[in-house]
Amino acid sequence: MQKHPENGDILEETRKSKKGDSESRAKPFDVWERADRDSGGMYSFYYTKVAKLYPELSSMEKRIAALIIGINSSREIARKLWITVRTVENHRYNIRCKLGIHSPESLESFLQKK
To answer: 3: which strand partners?
Structure first.
């Protein structure tokens, strides 16, 4: 069983069964729902904003962008979504490419200005 890195609670749904049963794994939507609930709905608000402004982003990239606006830290985003920091960094790179951000301006600044 895995323990959540922040609060140590055991999360049964994140445990993979030996048979690889997809029902025993946390789904990205479930993890997103939990993070959004913990934020008081702030992430959903940002997600809606990002989805309207940047429809070309995938749903995961929209989630990451919403969390960038609310959190900024790749490490904290990874912790909230139960993914690696490297995965967050890859999504950040893809978002920058899709949005055409080639200047030294930070992704956080770009997203927060809109």
So the answer is: 10
Q: With respect to residue 74, please indicate whether it lies within any of the assigned structural domains.
A: yes
- Least Cα distance to 50 among 62, 41, 40 occurs for 62
Indicate the average pLDDT of the chain: 79
* CATH number, residue 41: 1.10.10
Q: Answer yes or no: are the C-beta atoms of 22 and 8 closer than 8 Å.
A: no
Query: DSSP per residue over 31-76, as a string?
Result: HHHHHHHHTTTHHHHHHHHHHHH-TTS-HHHHHHHHHHHHT--HHH
The two tokens of residue 107 are: 């992704």
Residue matched to tokens 């997103």: 32
Give me the number of domains the chain comprises.
Answer: 1
The residue segments making up the domain with residue 87 are 27-113
pLDDT tens digits for range 73-103: 899 999 998 999 999 999 999 999 999 998 8
**pTM, whole model, 2 decimals?**
0.72
